[in-house]
Amino acid sequence: MDLEVVSLQHVLTSHFLRTPGMQVQDVYKLLHQAALGSEHAVQDEQQARNWLEKELVEMGEGPEDPLIDALPPDGRIVRVHLRPFRQAAGDPGELLRAFLRTANEWHGSVDTLKEFGAQAVELARSGSMPVNSEEIGTFLGRMEKQGFPAVHHTAIYQRLYRPAYRVVARQYLEGV
Prior knowledge:
The protein is mostly helical. The protein has one domain. It is built from eight helices and three strands; from the N terminus they run αααββαααααβ. Helix 3 (45-58) crosses helix 5. The longest helix is centred in the C-terminal third of the chain and has 16 residues, at 110-125.
């Protein structure tokens, strides 16, 4: 599968165009997923299955998201948005398998997260991102001290965009 390689600026700009209400924490969440995938999200396979099934039924209406949304510039990790996935009659079992494989087999890099963070600070400093460079730098420093934990989307982001997706490695999307 050919992957289009783009810049981190392109990735962040495309997200800000679709979700202009993104806050610094939402930027960090995107960078975290781009660098580390979904390894933080799976505690139990049955719980992951129940979570997906419930979300597919209860997610309601939301913005028009693409089916597949590349996160890192090389596109190896993607968000599969559930509304277009359901609309395309995607197989939840295949998506669950891709999600679980990503969590269990794909290993990201904290060094990549640090590099993405440094790039994001520089993009904000240059005015290429509508967030304050000091604010994002401070937030990233706090997250580093905590071991770069996964975070939830901000309440603002959740209210505005009602996010519903799974983070998966593109290589595991055979049947999706």
